[in-house]
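W.,

You were right to be curious about this one. When I first looked at the sequence I had no strong expectations either way, so I just let the prediction run and decided to look at it fresh. Below is the sequence, 114 residues in total, followed by the output.
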Amino acid sequence: MKNFVRITTAVIICVAIIISCKTTKSPTTTTATPPALTYTASVKKILDQNCNGCHNNPEKKKGDFTKYAGVKAKIDKGEFQEEVFQKKSMPPKEPLSADDFDKLKKWVEAGAPE
C-alpha cells in the first residue's frame, strides 16, 4: 500500500510539473516581415503601368525604365527622386496612387535593390 501511495504521488507530481511547464512557457510571436521591395518583384509593374509609355525608348533620352539599369541611372543622378517625390511632376498625366508612391519611395530609400 505504501508503494502505491508513493507511486501515485510521484505520478501526480510529474503531471503537475509537465502541466506547469506547458502553461508557463512564454508564447512565441512571429511578426511577418513584409516582402522586400525590389525592381523585379514590385517596382517594374508600377513603372510599366505608369511610366513606360514615355520611358521605354532609349533614343528619346528620357531614360529606359523597362530595364533596371535605366531606372537606377536616374536614381543615381537624383533625377528620379526630384521628379517623382519632390516636384511630383512624374507621371505628368495622372498622379501615382498613394500605394504606388509609397512603394517607390520605400524602394528608393532602401537603395533601389534589383
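Here's what jumped out at me. The mean pLDDT is 84. And, maybe more interesting for your project: The CA atoms of residues 57 and 94 lie 20 Å apart.

Coffee later to discuss?

I.
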